[in-house]
């Protein structure tokens, strides 16, 4: 029987949705079984052991009944000696075999489940990281991550225990019912007329109580939100002298928790009394009728004992089915979602080391020809409209324009995070789509606005640009990026841990690490998404110097926010509302007079 809880201590997996079992959902879930294939021999042996241990469990009631009969000088079965000692020894031998078989069964199942689950985890992770960016735009990454881990834990639970438990209970139930008939048909008919009714009532009632318990949890969560909100905004609460208001709000929330919990407890009490009454009632009925049969000489005392023990087995199996079924349902739902991720269309990026070898070197000439683009998640808004520009190999090209006009989108198209809806992106005069994705991304580096570092050491973070880099190369890159000195100022130098997402470093330091990373990658094309957050003038000078170093000898696309930094660019492309409205050198654009560039430039000068 599923145990009820009226508190909020359930694990997240308990909240996993339970889909209806249909052919389609089953077919999807079954797809995951291919992951068992490499371990099928162990799985089959485990299954055989499982059957053996369930079957041996079924012998005990018969043996114990025979032992009681033997005590009264009766022989229950012709194949079993009628002396207590022999039956006791046989029981212990079977018990020993059962323990041994159970050990191997558990060991094998867990091994198979863990190994195949590791394969599923690895494949879903591989798939996830090779999915196009658009997939992530439509989902919250945290949610995706916790969903996936809850789903996988559910599948793991099912593979390690639920599956085995279900098979065991099916064997015990069918074997138990058959043996009940063998021992006494009359008693079994009585039993079978009571037991299923009880089980059905218990399941329906159980569901009702479970609903109540969920409501209690929701209410508790609501009251916790009050605490959280109040504490987060404690200064507001105090400033408005609203302590009394918040206390009353919390107290109201608590009252509703108590109300629903007490209601739940009432039903639970009724349920428990009902179950106790019925359960013991059934036992009394069976023993009553059984004793009458013994008195009539219809069955022996040993038979009655055997019978009662089998009844306990059968009742236990019946009671365990609702929870097992619910777990299987959840696992099937979980498998469906995992399969969805496994079936998503991946990008054609390779995961092998040799995929990092560049097969089509790019010199650095970039051209956009009438490129139009709308994000797949927001098709109705055309972000880029007929955008055309060109940067020769080694040139510096700047893209400027107001916020939200599509500058970063241009960068995403260069990196081929997305494909244009119409028009062409060309590298060295060849269409981008004719290059393997890995070739493009291996030769384009981006220094983004918000530099994200991984939680390891500075050395590892720089090496992310080229994982095979030697220690010396990392230091050279850091020196060129103006980062070496500040790194050496840390007691642990290059082994300093940067903290989660690089929080232990300042914005300017993070940027210089990102520049060192890009230097190490040594790309043909560089995209600089200039930081909008202002650094102090010393950091800005250091970052600027590092950027100058980085831009040497390669094509640079600078998404510029500070126009002062791009005066020297070979070409400045002015974008407004997704369209190129002007392009030329700084002087040419300024000479034009009242254009957008002129306006923006004047605005920035005025700000200084
Ligand atoms: N992944 C996305 N899905 C849907 N729309 C997006 C996505 N990313 C950006 N956009 C939208 O596309 C438009 C252009 O965004 P983009 O980031 O390219 O502008 P930007 O010029 O770089 O802005 P900023 O100067 O503020 O960085 C915006 O309206 C933005 O809301």
Describe the structure.
There is one protein chain. It contains 18 helices and ten strands. It is an alpha/beta fold. It has a six-stranded mixed β-sheet with strand order 6-7-8-3-9-10, with helices on both faces. The chain has a four-stranded antiparallel β-sheet with strand order 2-1-4-5, with helices on one face. α16 links the parallel β7 and β8 (555-559). The radius of gyration is 36 Å and the shape is elongated. The chain binds adenosine-5'-triphosphate (ATP). Adenosine-5'-triphosphate (ATP) is lined by residues 137, 375, 377-378, 383, 403-409.
Number of self-contained structural domains: 3
CATH level-3 fold name of the largest domain? Rossmann fold
- What integer is the average pLDDT? 84
Lateral strand order in the biggest sheet? 6-7-8-3-9-10
Oligomer: single chain
Transmembrane segments: 43-64, 84-106, 166-183, 189-209, 269-295, 307-328
Domain ABC transmembrane type-1: 44-330
Pfam families: ABC_membrane (PF00664), ABC_tran (PF00005)
Main location: membrane
